[in-house]
Design goal:
The protein is built from two helices and ten strands; from the N terminus they run αβαβββββββββ. A hairpin with a 3-residue loop joins β5 and β6. The protein is elongated. By secondary structure, the chain is mostly beta strands. 11% of the residues lie in helices and 66% in strands.
């Protein structure tokens, strides 16, 4: 009987927290490239003075398990140019994407993961034009480096938002993203 109680006590200690718990919450702030934007919007005969913010984004994820986490991301970018040497155009894209992430390597200093998100893009400009359309984000591989609450990351993937054949808002945006994480 005493041996049985010792075995039950050891199993209970193992199951009830003898191991350190992994943080469940993750907040990320980052910046992504604007390759598509620089290829699609560039100086022509009557436009000049192009400027791009790149993709500035923030997201939150909650870990359901050590492998699966769910959350949401907000992504914002701006594209600016001058038309006919007088009128300044300002175009903005705001994306809101529920997302999921799958961690496939979790070591003390390095985490490797993939993720995807789908949501809505709100496009608007200073001329009063606006549109809403679906947007998708695929993160084929992400690398998080750092131990403890703070770490850095680099993601390789892309964002795409197409209304129809003649209205392409993003294809191949955010091929590379970098930023910082905070976990708790």
């Amino acid at each position: 009987m005493r041996k049985l109680l010792v075995v039950i006590a050891l199993i209970s200690c193992t199951l009830c927290g003898a191991q350190e718990k992994s943080p469940r919450h993750l907040v990320r702030l980052g910046w992504g490239d604007m390759l598509f934007e620089t290829l699609a919007f560039h100086p022509t005969g009557n436009t000049s003075g192009y400027g791009y913010t790149g993709h500035v984004f923030a997201d939150y994820h909650y870990s359901l398990t050590r492998v699966v986490s769910v959350g949401a991301q907000i992504d914002f970018q701006g594209i600016f140019w001058t038309e006919d040497a007088s009128r300044r155009s300002r175009n903005y894209d705001l994306c809101i994407l529920p997302s999921a992430r799958f961690t496939w390597l979790d070591k003390p200093w390095v985490r490797l993961y993939s993720g995807l998100g789908a949501g809505v893009l709100f496009a608007f400009d200073n001329a009063g034009e606006h549109a809403a359309l679906p947007v998708f984000n695929l993160n084929s591989i992400g690398v998080q480096i750092g131990k403890g609450r703070w770490s850095g990351f680099i993601d390789l993937g892309f964002m795409v938002a197409i209304k129809n054949v003649s209205q392409v808002y993003m294809v191949g945006s955010r091929l590379v993203s970098v930023g910082v994480n905070y976990r708790w």
